[in-house]
Design brief:
- This protein is mainly α and 204 residues long.
- It has one domain.
- Helix content is 66%, strand content 0%.
- Keywords: Membrane, Transmembrane, Transmembrane helix.
Amino acid sequence: MYLFYPSLHMPRLRQVIKTKYTRTESDSDAGIEDLQDSTPIDIDEQNKVIEDFERSIPLNPRREPTDKDRHILIFLRALQLTFIFINLLLITLPHYRKENPFFSFFSCLSILLSAIMIDVEFLHCNTRREILNSVPNKWLMILNILLSVAITVPKLFHFTLPLDVIYFLPTLFSIAVYSTYSDWSSLDSQVQKLRSMRYHYKDA
């Protein structure tokens, strides 16, 4: 599950890197007839390709916000409010607070960490920072997944419908946040790689 879908753009980006920037003379000797892909593009065309991909990256701080970005921000803030509501249930309802205090405490902790990561990595991506100076945010997300799984697995053997369904949500949220972060970072990294591979092309 993803909060949004940057990974949909990745195959197209990899194809551009492969066909536009890794073409060698041996390709021509092999009889490749796709002249459009084998013909070098000038610096302006290269910049246009890169800018198109940068515009396709959601919440990209290197460009002006788009309507799509604003819709994503609204969705993410609504998701954070949902997290707060779930945590309120966990600390107020007797079934969670009294009968399952251990699971409820760590579920609240996991959901809170997911909400913080959404805030740091997506809502304020232009001022992105590490929450802990000595630990990258990526590792905190992985730790959050492990924590949420540690909550979910024991509940599989002591499950009460429908109330205990809530204990599966931390795992869902933590995996969704990490997956989205991972795809977003990978796409951004590949666009920067594409930018670094630009060459200066001159007509003969």
